[in-house]
Design goal:
The protein is mainly β. The protein has three helices and 16 strands. The longest helix has 11 residues.
């Protein structure tokens, strides 16, 4: 699943030393959204929905922070000039929920069909700032924020007593899905166990009250997670 809202930042890449650009290269058009949803389990591939290159080159994935790119963790095969879709890139390691990735493209400059790094295979950029709007898409580089995609319809299974505590299973989903299910059932408190300890979410309470629960399930709640729900 791919979500929307592009965010670009060539300046951050250059500031981080991730891209060395001794000369302007040709521009490229692409579509890659800033929220990239992967399985709840770690993923070792990254897919770019579409890219159009003016010259043969490589689509490169950097790890990093929200502000700047870091080391390269994945490089596509040599990609010919022209339009391409669903470009799958193998990564050196698994990516997980909460990571920030930077996607860029580099021209093949020495005809050896091998990505030789930014000082040899030049980064594709606009001559001015690298962020050119082309019919609603932006040239590389693009920031992609990884978030976990947890399957489930966000519901409880099991009998919930009118008053008191009940043991139920949650079908899986986000924390927002859990809160919606709790509100629908009139549940005031949800209790889970994490590494042998109880963590509690009080529906409608201030954020700080539920901070431990939110941290424990920041990537979503797996299907068939047992929970104790409380009604009064």
């Amino acid at each position: 699943m791919i979500r929307s809202n592009l965010k670009t930042g060539l300046g951050a890449l250059v500031a981080a030393g991730a891209l060395a650009i001794p000369g302007a290269a040709m521009a490229a058009d692409l579509t890659v959204d800033s929220e990239v949803t992967v399985d709840a389990a770690a993923s070792t591939t990254f897919t770019v929905p579409s890219a159009t290159l003016d010259a043969a080159g490589y689509i490169v994935v950097h790890e990093g922070t929200e502000a700047a790119a870091g080391d390269v963790i994945g490089v596509s095969a040599l990609t010919d000039a022209g339009a391409h879709s669903d470009i799958s890139i193998d990564l050196d390691r698994a990516i997980e929920d909460g990571e920030h990735l930077w996607v860029s493209v580099y021209n093949e400059t020495n005809a050896n069909a091998t990505f030789d790094g930014a000082t040899v295979d030049l980064a594709v950029t606009d001559a001015v700032n690298g962020n050119v709007d082309l019919d609603g898409a932006l040239t590389f580089p693009v920031l992609a924020n990884v978030s976990a995609d947890v399957e489930g319809d966000g519901s409880f299974s099991g009998d919930i007593a009118a008053v008191g505590s009940s043991l139920v299973l949650f079908s899986g989903g986000s924390l927002d899905d859990l809160v919606a299910a709790a509100n629908a059932e009139g549940v005031l408190t949800v209790v889970a166990t994490v590494d042998g300890a109880f963590v509690t979410h009080v529906v409608g309470a201030p954020v700080f009250v539920n901070a431990d629960f939110a941290a424990a399930f920041s990537g979503g709640i797996d299907a068939d997670t047992p929970l104790v729900v409380v009604k009064r």
